[in-house]
Amino acid sequence: MMLGNRPKLVPVAPGPASLEPAPPRIEEAGGTTVEAAPVETPLEPPAARRARSTLWSIRGWISQRRYWSLAAIGVALPLAAWFALSTLGTVNKVFLPGPFDVARRVVTWYHNDDLVGDIEISCYRVVAGWALSALIALPLALFIGTYRFVQALLEPLTDFIRYMPAVAFIPLVMLWIGIDEGAKIAIIFIGTFFQMVLMMAEDVRRVPMTQIEAAQTMGATRMEIIEKVIVPSAKPALLDTLRITMGWAWTYLVVAELVAANSGLGYAIIKAQRFLQTDKIFAGIILIGAIGLAMDQGFRLIHRLAFPWLYKRS
Fold it and tell me: Which helix (H) or strand (E) element contains residue 33?
């Protein structure tokens, strides 16, 4: 039999200077030993390997092109589902108008019902109520987040009031302020102010104590610590809080325009409800969302320009 002449595989340990295992050797029948040919494994293309590693990596970086492509897909999928439901006729148009019906309503609203004026007055009310909230909330939150006795004095009361629904204050606002523009701004103020105070105070409290202690060690006064340590350190988070609360201010627009309004996007939605104009309700909701999204992206751009070091790739 020829079994005695069969080559035998001899494993070889890797050398001390090599990080990869040495290739196996084959011992021939005559006693000579030769290296076996290495087995080549197919390598994954570098581009595919990088894409796979960054796409699902925790807080991984993706390119702007990929980001906006995914954002477009995220918007297109609900629109496609909406278009399909309205086109197939499975839902009555009174309850679910199609995208083209809503687009036609926007055009009619623009030409016949002063859409631009409604947008302008709604933006004014939202921005005025939000700005008034920020003007008062920022210094108050700075004191609550810096001094424990101010926190003990004001935070429980703020926590108590922020759970009260803003719509419940409408009768009191009409009694105290009246039914003019001030009443609508006041409703938006009540809806955003108390949450804004607490969120900003938390942003101030997140400033690392080591920075404050380092400033105290170098002899800084209380005002110097607030001006040169706490405020600069909390600025990125405070701007983010302003961005988030701007979104809340828009959610109170319809409630605010319940108060004897005769213009505005919220008023148009309420009026359309009375006449079962569902397409106009959809148009108003989508317009509010689009304006809010534009403002949100503006805040993000300001944040990126003001604090560029937060967006540098590691």
Answer: strand 33-35
